[in-house]
Design a protein that fits this description.
Layout lengths: L3 H11 L6 E3 L3 H7 L6 H6 L10 E3 H11 L7 H9 L8 E3 H10 L6 H11 L8 E3 H9 L3
Helix pairs in contact: 1-4, 5-8
Amino acid sequence: MVDAESIKKICDIYDWDGKGEIDLFFLGDVFYALGLNTTKKVCVGLGQTDEEGKKFAKFDDVVAKVMEGKEAPTGNYHDFMELLKLYDKNSNGTMMLAELENILANMGDEIPKEDVQKLLAELCDPEDEDGMFPYTPFVDRLTGKA
């Protein structure tokens, strides 16, 4: 459960100088440390900066930001499946692996290409001779349903 006390404990870890404030460059890290799945867009909207040392916030302000940001909608299993069905040209539960790689690398929170390749290697079934792979097992593994 995410409450003010748990948020402040995480903030304390990122308070390098003991001033009771954190660099907002690390706001996304605070969300992830709390087990919250959020996007960079949400974090930037709440004040996250792209460089260290630009903007700081007191712990109570970070608590307010996290409480606001944790309510932001995130994708769920059904949303992922509906998205991938758009790329299922044969309506048989498969899509091109290259298309999934492009989606992950370039949409939403951009993921470095090498990280995408590691993710696909771990979670995707092998592609067939046409470059297609079944996407349901991938989403199952990604969301912890497998």
